[in-house]
Amino acid sequence: MAAKLLISDRHVRFRLSWFCIIGNGQMHQSSFDNADVGTSDVLPSALAELPSARFVWSLRLICAAALGISVYLAWTAFGMGQVFGCSGGDLIDCEHVLTSHWSKVLGVPVSVPAAGLYASLIALLAFARQGGPNRLRQLVWGGITLGSTMAGLAALWFIGLQVSELKFCPYCLVVHTCGIVLTGTMLASGLCPSPLKLKSACISLLGIAALVGIQVVTPKADHFEVVHYDDVVPAASTNQDDGIDVFEAPGEAFDAPNAGEAAEKSDPAGAVSPAAEESARAQDLRPVDEPSSVATTVLFILPPQFLQLTHLLLLTLPQCDDEAAKSTDAANVEVTKESSELPNEASVKKTDGDNADAAATSEASTPEANQSDATVKSAIELPAPVVSAPPERRLLTFANSRFTLDITQWPLLGKTDAKYVFVEMFDYTCPHCRNTHHAISGAQKRYGDDLAIFALPVPLEGACNPAAGGGHPGACEMAKIAVAVWRLDPSKFQTFHDWMFAGSRTVSTARAYAETLVDKERLKAELKSDMPKQYISRHVKLYQRVGSGQVPKLIFTKTTVQGEVNSIETLCNKIKSELSVAQK
User: Fold this and answer.
1) Maximum Cα–Cα distance for the chain, whole Å?
2) Among 28, 9, 8, which residue's Cα sits nearest to residue 18?
3) Cα distances (Å, whole numbers) of residue 169 to 14, 172, 579
4) d(CA 219, CA 104)
5) What is the mean pLDDT of residues 241-264?
6) What is the sign, positive or negative, of the torsion defined by CA atoms of 120, 122, 126, 129?
7) CB atoms inside a 10 Å sphere around CB 376
8) Per-residue b or e along 25-56, where b marks 16 or more CB atoms closer than 10 Å to that residue's CB
9) How many CB atoms lie within 10 A of CB 14?
10) Contact yes or no for 37/44 (Cβ under 8 A)
11) Cα 315 to Cα 319: distance, rounded to the nearest angstrom
12) 24 vs 22: CA distance, rounded Å
């Protein structure tokens, strides 16, 4: 009996000795209840029991979800693709968040280090339920606590940035939520000694502070390439100007925007403008070969007897000095005279009495008829209204003679006589175009009236651009609205264009803002017409002529810059080098 108790006691001592390892690698027997947590080399009682499998698997699933989303976001960032189900909106806009300056650290998307962090946590959790030396297990749980705390602090930083920008990415928020949950779980558990938790928190805080500092001091990076073109023979064109291949705007004969609508233009209150009144007065002085009015036609078809009776009644009235009465009488006599000259059989077959009355009436009204003739002749001999000549054409060639544009025919930011002119192709739903717009605005402020830009919307939506890769819903409609605003009032186009790039816009918000700049009914009629659609189609043809691909495209005389340009200085240097000679 004593031998059996001795063997059992030795067996228990042997099993417990695996959890009690001192610094020199020797095993000794100890009691878990009397262990000093954090100060002894002996594992504390909390670590004596392995964490449950459910707890460990919960941590693994959280890390796996964050890892999968981080890898997907990194893939879309490197491929410059669109995030699925997260199009541009007033609040939810993944592209805006993922292409902002804060989405990168040292030029690398922040989703890349996030993916590495969560992959490391999954690797450490693989040893979470394995027994072993005390220091090894402290290293495992200490590493998990450190990584979780760092993920949580980073989540707070990036959530704060989204709140400040009022733009949110649901994918990013899921990853940040995973980091916060991991941080709270590990700090609340007893799997890691308190001193080690404090050290992990301090190291994580220093790491996130370094991340923030790097992002703050790092200037915005440019992501573009310069495309050089070989010398080519310009493509044939149906519209030639002195032998130059001109890429014409839609329509057989182009009219300047709003040129034919001056007479109809009215202010918001509905009052007719002075230009409309002037045009109306000019219409009153029509040449004699124009069709007769309806009133005159009615007088022509009245019986001559009725007209003669009317004149006899007028002659019996007292003479007055009223010029209006004389003018009316003279006009009626003139109509009678013209009517008598018409080949009317009924007039030829008059009785002798009727002829005598007509002759007396004609003799009595001869002075008034002569006065009417003089009045009509004076009106006919007035000079025709002066029609303003179309603006003088100014032809500019781009992309090493791949196309030539008339500066008066296309949407323009700036003046037509600017010294430096280049072409910008863009999409209002493209975040890279939005970032590049800031650099273009800076260049406009620096050069002033010396710089002008052909602003050609090229939607990346397949509905109106067969060369696009898909996505970008609403891009076609927003481009049409922009063209309509330019055609109705070119002076308001710059305002609308800047507003569109001030944030992510939708079709409804873009149209609502356009209605504040131009008349609502005229905008509605313009959008119903086919002209904005034709302009977009012509823009797409130019886009295909220069090789399609990504936008924005800044097309100069010899080269094209395609991609995101953030630096104002870089863009200004490019303008100087490419457009140093004035294009006239």
Assistant:
1) 168
2) 28
3) 56, 5, 40
4) 11
5) 58
6) positive
7) 14
8) eeeeebebeebeeeeebbbbeebeeebeeeee
9) 11
10) yes
11) 8
12) 6
In this structure, what is the dihedral angle of CA atoms 207, 210, 215, 218, given to the nearest 10 degrees?
-140
Sign (positive or negative) of CA dihedral 425, 428, 430, 435: positive
Residue 189: burial class (beta carbons within 10 Å; 0-12, 13-18, 19+) = middle
DSSP of 172-229, one letter per residue?
Answer: HHHHHHHHHHHHHHHHHSSSS-HHHHHHHHHHHHHHHHHHHHHHHHSPPPPEEEEEE-
Instruction: Evaluate whether 304 touches 344 at the Cβ level (below 8 Å).
Output: yes
Helix residue ranges per DSSP H, 126-169: 134-165
* 550 vs 236, higher pLDDT: 550
Angle, alpha carbons 548-553-555 (nearest 5°)? 105
Is 561:432 a contact under the CB 8 Å cutoff?
A: no
DSSP annotation string for 539-559: HHHHHHHTT--SS-EEE-SSE
Q: Which domains does the chain have, with CATH numbers?
A: 51-217 (1.20.1440.130), 240-256+393-578 (3.40.30.10)
State the residue for tokens 């800047």.
498
Q: Given the structure tokens 């000095």, which residue do they identify? A: 321
Give the three-state DSSP class for 480.
helix
Q: Kindly report each contact of residues 273-276 with a partner whose C-beta sits within 8 Å and lies 24 or more positions away, as own/partner.
A: none
Residue 575's nearest CA partner among 445, 456, 459, 457 is 445
CB atoms closer than 10 angstroms to residue 562 = 21
Cis check: omega of the bond before 390, within 30 degrees of 0: no
Residue pair 162/83 in contact by the 8 Å Cβ criterion: no
Structure tokens at 266: 């009215």
pTM: 0.57
Q: Is the peptide bond between 51 and the residue preceding it cis, with omega within 30 degrees of 0?
A: no
- C-beta separation of 517 from 496 below 8 A: yes
563, HSE (Cβ side, Cα atoms, 13 Å):
12
For 300, how many CA atoms within 13 A lie in the half-sphere containing its CB? Answer: 11
Residue 484, amino acid: A
| 8 Å CB contact between 515 and 458 | no
Q: Kindly provide the b/e burial profile for residues 332-344, where b requires at least 16 CB atoms within 10 angstroms of the residue's own CB.
A: bbbbbeebeeeee
Give tens-digit pLDDT for 202-241. Answer: 999 999 999 999 988 887 777 778 888 877 654 444 444 4
Query: Rounded mean pLDDT of 508-534?
Result: 95
For range 387-408, the mean pLDDT:
84
Show the CA angle centred on residue 353, arms to residues 349 and 354, nearest 5°: 55
Length of the chain: 584
| DSSP assignment letter at 34 | G
Classified as helix, coil or strand, 233 is coil
Helix pair 111-125, 53-79: axis angle to 10 deg: 160
